[in-house]
Amino acid sequence: MQSSGTALRVVHEPDPGLDLAAAETAAGDFLRALGVSLDSESLRGTPGRMARAYAELFTPREFDLTTFPNDEGYDELVLARDIPVRSVCEHHLLPFIGVAHVGYLPGERILGLSKLARIVEYFACRPQVQERLTKQIAGWLGDQLSPKGVGVVIEAEHTCMTLRGVQATGSSTVTSTLMGTLREDARSRQEFFSLTGVNA
């Protein structure tokens, strides 16, 4: 838990193995191996763009985890709905895109609201599976904030399922993680799911 007036600086340490030049070469080899000619003016720069795009997808922005004393003793649910989620399926390296609903029951401290979105981005910017992403967000909030309860729901469309394979266009995947009171108390759990718009 943070001490009063202190913010935790959350930094994604750059991967010492990050080599954009090597990634560009590999992307070119990959495309040519799939029969894509890179001779045209519009495709010549594609390997470099691919390398930079994936580097961006895998690098979250730094942020300060700002918390404040819960001076008013607020003990009701704090919920941020429809936080944009974009990540990359670790099995096919294809995007999955959707929204996260993140809530908590405050303890001694409350969180700057924009930081809920920052935390979602922090864990989404890496090859992921939705189940792990959901648990990581909830677990990290529980560790850093010591709230009475945490709830996270993610609804996302996985292009590895909609654009290839079964081609289940329009399908979405919903995952949830509940901790503390939101897991143990039926009324609190129902309130959380009702406010997120998810049928429990």
The total strand number stands at 9
User: How much is the average pLDDT?
Assistant: 90
- Given as residue ranges, the uncertain stretches (5+ residues, pLDDT < 50) are 1-5
| Principal-axes shape call | elongated
Please report the distance between the alpha carbons of the first and last residues: 31 Å
Please give the largest β-sheet: 5 strands, mixed
Alpha carbon gyration radius: 20 Å
Count of DSSP H/I helices: 8
Helix-strand topology string: EHHHEEEEEHEHEHEHH
Indicate the structural class: alpha+beta
Report strand order across the widest sheet. 7-4-5-8-9
The residue fraction in helices comes out at 25-40%
The proportion of residues in beta strands is 25-35%
Notes on the structure:
With about 200 residues, the chain is of the alpha+beta class. Helix content is about 40%, strand content about 30%. The strands form 3 sheets. It has a 5-stranded mixed β-sheet, sandwiched between helices. The longest helix is centred in the last third of the chain and has 16 residues. The radius of gyration is 20 Å and the shape is elongated.
Any key phrases for this structure?
alpha+beta, 5-stranded mixed beta sheet, two-stranded antiparallel ribbon, 8 helices, 9 strands, GTP_CycHdrlase_I_CS, one-carbon metabolism
Brief overview:
With 200 residues, this protein is of the alpha+beta class. Helices cover 38% and strands 28% of the residues. The protein has helices spanning 20-33, 41-44, 46-57, 114-124, 130-145, 159-162, 181-184, 186-196, and strands spanning 8-10, 63-65, 67-69, 78-89, 95-105, 109-111, 127-128, 149-158, 173-180.
